[in-house]
Each structure stands twice: as C-alpha cells, then as structure tokens.
Design goal:
By secondary structure, the chain is an all-alpha fold. It is about 75% helix and about 0% strand.
Length: about 210
C-alpha cells in the first residue's frame, strides 16, 4: 500500500484523540458530542473530509436519526418511572410465585437479556435496568457477586440480538453483508447458544472457583 501519507497520519491522530477524550469524558467533563463534532471539524479543516462527503452518506444520517429516536424513547421510559414500575412488579410477582433463588435468577436474567429487543443502545439499557434487575436478583436470593457478574456479561452478549442493539450492530448491518431477517434469526440462535454456555457451563466453573 506504500508509505503512510500525511493525511493518514492526521486522520490517525484525530481518531486516537477522539477515542481518548471519549474514554475520559467523565474525568475531563467534555461531552462525547463535543468530541465527535470537534474531530469531524478538524478532518474538514484539514481537507481530509468534506461536507459533501458527509451529506451524501445517507446510511450514516439514517443511523443517527433512528438511534436518536430509540435512545430518546428509552430515556423517557426511565424518566416516566415505567422502568422502576416494571422492576417492582416483577419482583412482587416472583415473590408471590414462591420461586426459589435459582429459578428466580434464571427468570430475571433471561428477562434482562430479552428486553434488549426494546433498546437501541447498550448504555441506555444498562443505565436504565442494571440497578433494578440487580436489586431483584438480590432480593430473591441471588448472592451479590454472581448477580453483578452475570448482568455484566449479559450486558455485552445482548448486542447480537438485533441490528439496532448497539452502535456496532448498526455499522455492521449497514455493510449489507446480512439482511435484517437473517440478523434476527442469527441473533436468537446466539442468544440460545450463549444462554446454554454461560448459564450451564459457566455455573459449573463458578462453582469450581468458589464464586457460587
């Protein structure tokens, strides 16, 4: 491919700087939106990118609009108290059903996993549901550490469910390597596969190392 060009060096520095600012946003106080706009502005000022190129990228604009709408809806669910209502209702029903700790754990974890069909962002899902579902697990008899770890693992595994499950999913579906219907089928297959591997095999391993 030849030696690295000046434009490629500039692009690399800008991208690495944006990733660094994004990763340290909580410490620096710089919102990710400011980082994104600043990085794009630098690329345009240096001539590496142009507005015409950005305006013609209809798939990117479609992703922005759809994700903004879905993330906004998820935030409203939390703001209106629907998330807390759902968590308290589930806890009451599980307690009323007289389920022991293990069946309650499996039910709550599976519900936390599958409810991601309603979310377009892992961040929105975790920020809205992680704490309520963790409390449900602990209140129904699951030890604290296994409850936290299991929800943390699922918070990453659930990104395979739908073509809008995460920002990465949107980029992948935009490459047209797989259709939407194929993604849903594959996503459910991976859900079943991961459920067996992480719940069955993982439980045996956790028992062996003393977490359970």
């Amino acid at each position: 491919m030849g030696p690295v060009k000046d434009e490629e060096n500039i692009f690399g520095v800008v991208m690495l700087s944006m990733v660094g600012l994004w990763a340290t946003a909580s410490s620096t106080g710089i919102p990710p939106v400011v980082t994104a706009l600043g990085g794009q502005s630098l690329l345009m000022l240096t001539g590496i990118s142009t507005w015409d190129e950005c305006a013609k990228n209809s798939k990117a604009w479609g992703t922005f609009v759809s994700f903004a709408s879905l993330v906004g809806l998820a935030n409203m669910l939390k703001k209106l108290g629907i998330v807390n209502w759902f968590a308290s209702t589930m806890t009451a029903k599980i307690s009323a059903a007289g389920l022991s700790a293990l069946p309650a754990f499996l039910l709550i974890l599976t519900a936390y996993w599958l409810v991601h069909y309603l979310f377009a962002s892992q961040v929105a899902h975790v920020s809205a549901l992680f704490q309520p579902f963790l409390l449900m697990m602990v209140e129904t008899g699951t030890p604290g550490i296994p409850a936290v770890l299991s929800l943390a693992f699922v918070s990453n595994l659930m990104m395979t469910l739908t073509p809008y499950a995460s920002a990465q999913s949107a980029v992948m579906i935009g490459g047209n390597f797989i259709s939407v219907s194929q993604w849903y089928k594959a996503g459910f297959f991976f859900f079943a596969f991961y459920w067996v591997v992480w719940i069955c095999s993982g439980a045996v391993w956790w028992k062996a190392i003393g977490i359970l």
